[in-house]
C-alpha cells in the first residue's frame, strides 16, 4: 500500500485491534481511553484535551464547524486542492456562507491572500478561517504559522480551523503554538490505524465559541468527548478496538520518538522527490519549499490517464498508488510515504514505478539510484 491513506498497519497494531472487544463502560477501557487522550496531545502539539469520535476525517470537519459556528455564519476557506474544496462544500451544506480564496492547486495557502481577504472584511463578518495543513490531493504543505501571523497582523478575531488529516503523526503539528482553534485528524494516515476515528484538538476559545454557536449538533457535540479525558467514558459506544489499537500505535510512535518519526518522513519524502526529479516528472506542487513529507503527487502526460497506470502497477508489482482527485482526476499519480513505512518499502515502491512507468511514458532511467543516493548515510529505521 503506497496510498496517502489508508496506510499500512503495523502487525502489533493489528494484533491489538484483534483482541476481544472489552466493556466500553468498564474500568479497563476507561483507563486505556484516558491514557490515549493524554498521549495524543504531543502529536497535536497541545496541552489541552483532545476529542476522539467514531468517524472519519469528514466527521472531524463537521465537528469543527457545528461546535463553533451558527447558521449563516461566514467562513473563509483557503482552497489548495480537492480536500480544501471538499471542506468548503461541507460547510455550505451545513448552512454556512463560504468565501473561497483560491490560490491554485499547485502550491500552499498564501498568507498574503489571507491577509488581503481579512483586511477587506471591515465588518468582521468572517467567523472562521479554514485551511488544510497538508493537501493530500496535491502533496503540498501550507505554513500554518505564517497564516496565523497574517491573521494576527490584521488583528482579526476569526477562529482558525486546521485540517491536519494527512500531516499529524508524520510532521510537526503545533496546535498551541499556532493558536489554532480546532485541529482535526483521522486514524488512517500517520496514526497507522484502519479508518474509523476522527480526532480533534480544541482551544479554550473554540470551546467558548461553542457555548453560543447554534448549528444543530448531537452526535458531533464535543463537550462530552472532551470531558472523556477526565471521565474515561463517552456518551455513546466508542470504536473500542480502534482505541485499543491506538494505544499500541502511540506506544510505537513514542518508542521511535517524534523527532525521529518526523525525520524518517522527511528522509523518505526526499528520496521520492529525488527519484521523481531524476525521472523528469513534474510535481503537482510547484513550490519546492511546500512539498509534502507525507505524499508526493506528480503529473502524468495528458494521453496517460492514471487509472490505467495504477492498475498496471498493482497487477504487475502488487503496489497500490493513489490517483488524481477532483480537477486532477486522471491526471496524476500520488505516492503516499507516511505511517508505517521505511527505506526498503520506499525503494521497492520506486522500483515498481521505474519498471512500470516506461510502458506508458518515457522516463530517464536511474531514479531509484537517485533515491538511494538521497537516502545515503541515513540510518536504517
Ligand atoms: N482532509 C484531508 C486532508 C484528507 O486527506 C482526507 C482524506 O483523505 C479528508 C480530509 C477526509 O477524510 P475521510 O476520508 O477520513 O473522511
Q: How is this structure best described in words?
A:
The protein is of the alpha/beta class and 381 residues long. It folds into 2 domains: 11-254, Type I PLP-dependent aspartate aminotransferase-like (Major domain) (Aspartate Aminotransferase, domain 2), CATH 3.40.640; 257-376, Aspartate Aminotransferase, domain 1, CATH 3.90.1150.10. The chain is 42% helix and 15% strand. The chain contains 14 helices and 12 strands. It has helices at 11-17, 27-39, 41-44, 57-66, 82-93, 111-120, 144-154, 204-212, 222-231, 240-256, 258-278, 306-317, 343-356, 367-375, and strands spanning 50-54, 74-79, 97-102, 126-132, 134-135, 140-141, 159-163, 182-186, 197-202, 295-299, 322-323, 332-336. A hairpin with a 4-residue loop joins strand 5 and strand 6 (140-141). Helix 2 crosses helix 9, helix 2 (27-39) packs across helix 10 (240-256) and helix 13 packs antiparallel against helix 14 (367-375). It is globular and about 60 Å long. The mean pLDDT is 97. The site of pyridoxal-5'-phosphate has 12 residues, from helix 4. Pyridoxal-5'-phosphate (PLP) binds at residues 5, 56-58, 83, 132, 136, 163, 165-166, 186, 195.
Amino acid at each position: 500500500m503506497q496510498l496517502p491513506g489508508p496506510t499500512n498497519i503495523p502487525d502489533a497494531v493489528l494484533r491489538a485491534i484483534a483482541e476481544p472487544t472489552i466493556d466500553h463502560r468498564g474500568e479497563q477501557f476507561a483507563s486505556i481511553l484516558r491514557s490515549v487522550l493524554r498521549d495524543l496531545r504531543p502529536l497535536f502539539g497541545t496541552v489541552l484535551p483532545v476529542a476522539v469520535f467514531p468517524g472519519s476525517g469528514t466527521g472531524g470537519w463537521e465537528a469543527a464547524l457545528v461546535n463553533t459556528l451558527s447558521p449563516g455564519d461566514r467562513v473563509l476557506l483557503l482552497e489548495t486542492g480537492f480536500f480544501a474544496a471538499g471542506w468548503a462544500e461541507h460547510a455550505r451544506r451545513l448552512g454556512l456562507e463560504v468565501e473561497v480564496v483560491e490560490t491554485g492547486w499547485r502550491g500552499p495557502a498564501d498568507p498574503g491572500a489571507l491577509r488581503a481577504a481579512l483586511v477587506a472584511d471591515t465588518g468582521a463578518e468572517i467567523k472562521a478561517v479554514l485551511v488544510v495543513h497538508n493537501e493530500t490531493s496535491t502533496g503540498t504543505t501550507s505554513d500554518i504559522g505564517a497564516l496565523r501571523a497574517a491573521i494576527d497582523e490584521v488583528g482579526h478575531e476569526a477562529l482558525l480551523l486546521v485540517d491536519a488529516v494527512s500531516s499529524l503523526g508524520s510532521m510537526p503539528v503545533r496546535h498551541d503554538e499556532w493558536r489554532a482553534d480546532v485541529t482535526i485528524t483521522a486514524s488512517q494516515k500517520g496514526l497507522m490505524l484502519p479508518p474509523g476515528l476522527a480526532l480533534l484538538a480544541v482551544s479554550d476559545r473554540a470551546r467558548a465559541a461553542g457555548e453560543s454557536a447554534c448549528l444543530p449538533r448531537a452526535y458531533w457535540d464535543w463537550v462530552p468527548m472532551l470531558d472523556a479525558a477526565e471521565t474515561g467514558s463517552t456518551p455513546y459506544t466508542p470504536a473500542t478496538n480502534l482505541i485499543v489499537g491506538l494505544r499500541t500505535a502511540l506506544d510505537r510512535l513514542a518508542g521511535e520518538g517524534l523527532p525521529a518519526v518526523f525525520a524518517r518522513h522527511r528522509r523518505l519524502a526526499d528520496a521520492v522527490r529525488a527519484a521523481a526529479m531524476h525521472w523528469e516528472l513534474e510535481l503537482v506542487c510547484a513550490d519546492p519549499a511546500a512539498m509534502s513529507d507525507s505524499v508526493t503527487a506528480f503529473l502524468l502526460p495528458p494521453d496517460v490517464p492514471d487509472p490505467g497506470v495504477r492498475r498496471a502497477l498493482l497487477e504487475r508489482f502488487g503496489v497500490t498508488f493513489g490517483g488524481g482527485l477532483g480537477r486532477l482526476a486522471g491526471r496524476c499519480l500520488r505516492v503516499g510515504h507516511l505511517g508505517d513505512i521505511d527505506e526498503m518499502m520506499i525503494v521497492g515502491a520506486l522500483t515498481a514505478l521505474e519498471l512500470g512507468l516506461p510502458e506508458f511514458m518515457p522516463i530517464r532511467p536511474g531514479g531509484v539510484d537517485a533515491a538511494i543516493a538521497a537516502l545515503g548515510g541515513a540510518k536504517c529505521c
